[in-house]
Amino acid sequence: MNLTGKVLAITGSDGVLGQSTASVLSGHGARVALLAHAKTPSGAEPAGALHYGGIDLTMEDAARGVMDRIVKDAGRLDGLINVAGGFRWEKLEGGALDVWDAMYRLNLRTAVVSCQAALPHLLRAGGGRIVNVGAMGAAKAAAGMGAYAASKAGVAKLTEALADELKDRGITVNAILPSTLDTPRNRLDMPTADFSRWVAPAAAAEVIAFLVSDAARAVTGALIPVAGRV
Ligand SMILES: NC(=O)c1ccc[n+]([C@@H]2O[C@H](COP(=O)([O-])OP(=O)(O)OC[C@H]3O[C@@H](n4cnc5c(N)ncnc54)[C@H](OP(=O)(O)O)[C@@H]3O)[C@@H](O)[C@H]2O)c1
After folding, report:
1. Structure confidence by residue, pLDDT tens digits, 117-150
2. Domain count across the chain
3. pTM score > 0.85 for this model?
4. Residues with Cβ < 8 Å from 149, sequence gap 6 or more?
5. CB of 81 within 8 A of CB of 110?
6. Does some domain include residue 2?
7. 181-194 pLDDT, tens digit each
8. DSSP string spanning the chain?
9. Does a structural domain hold residue 115?
10. End-to-end CA gap in the chain
11. Which residue lies with its CA nearest to atom 21 of ligand 1?
C-alpha cells in the first residue's frame, strides 16, 4: 500500500486505535495530521506527524479551525479517518438518559462535525477519502448496549448517506465495523476472554489503510465488518 503524498487527518488519535492508525498510515508513507482530545502529545506520534491537541470534535468551530490549520500547515487534505468515539454499557432500567446523549455526542456528532469540516477541503483537492469507525455491535444490540449501538448505527447511516451524496464528486465514504479490539481496557473489562480471538488494532488500521488508498477507489458506502475471530 503506497500512501506517499497523501495528507490524512485522524480523529481520536491519542486513543488505542487512533495511535495504531497513525502509525500504520505513516508507515505506508502518508503524512498524518493527528486530532487529539488531550492537549499534550503522548510521545507516541510518528515522526513527521502534525499534532493538534485539545480539540473537542463535538464543537463545529474547533473542527473547522483544525481542518483549516491542517491545510495551512500541510498544503492539502486528502482524507479523514473518524476514530474518535467510545463505549458505555448501561441498562435502560435505572439508567440515565444522559448516557444516550453522551453516546450520540461522542460517536455520531463527532463524526458528523468532522465530516462537515473536512468536506470543503476534500472537494477543493478534487476528491478524497472518508473512513468512519462504526461497530459490529450496532447490528444487533444486546442488553446494556442500546445507547452505544444506536449511536454507532447512526455512524453507519451517516456513512451510507454521505457516500451517496458524494458519489459523483470523487470522495469515497466507508466504515469499518470492529467487533472487539485487543485493547488494555478490554483486557481489564473481560479478563477471562481469549484475547487472541480479538482484532489487533494494527490489523484494523490496515483495513483503514486500504480504504484510503487508490486501490479502494471503487469502494464507497461499504460497512466492513472487522471481526477477527469473535
Ligand atoms: N475498543 C473496541 O473494542 C471497539 C469496538 C468497536 C468499535 N470501537 C470504536 O473504535 C474507536 C476507537 O476505539 P478505542 O478503543 O481506540 O477508543 P479510545 O482508546 O477510547 O480512543 C478514543 C479517542 O477518542 C477521543 N475522544 C473522545 N471524545 C472526543 C471528543 N469530543 N473530541 C475529540 N476526541 C474525542 C478520546 O479522547 P479522551 O480519551 O481524551 O476522551 C480518545 O483518544 C471508537 O470509535 C470506538 O467506539 C472500538
Report:
1. 999 999 999 999 999 999 999 999 999 999 999 9
2. 1
3. yes
4. 135, 137, 138, 141
5. no
6. no
7. 999 999 999 999 99
8. ---TT-EEEEESTTSHHHHHHHHHHHHTTPEEEEE-SSSS--S-PPTT-EEE-S--TT-HHHHHHHHHHHHHHHS---EEEE---------STT--HHHHHHHIIIIIIHHHHHHHHHHHHHHHTT-EEEEEE--GGGSSPPTT-HHHHHHHHHHHHHHHHHHHHHTTTTEEEEEEEES-B--HHHHHH-TTS-GGGSB-HHHHHHHHHHHHSGGGTT--S-EEEE-TT-
9. yes
10. 27
11. 15
Kindly state whether residue 196 falls inside one of the protein's structural domains: yes
CA of residue 107 to ligand 1 center, whole Å = 8
Query: Which one-letter amino acid corresponds to residue 187?
Result: R
**Test site for ligand 1: of 10, 11, 16, 89, most ligand atoms within 8 A of the Cβ:** 16
User: Domain range for residue 148?
Assistant: 7-226
Q: What is the CATH number of the domain that holds 129?
A: 3.40.50.720
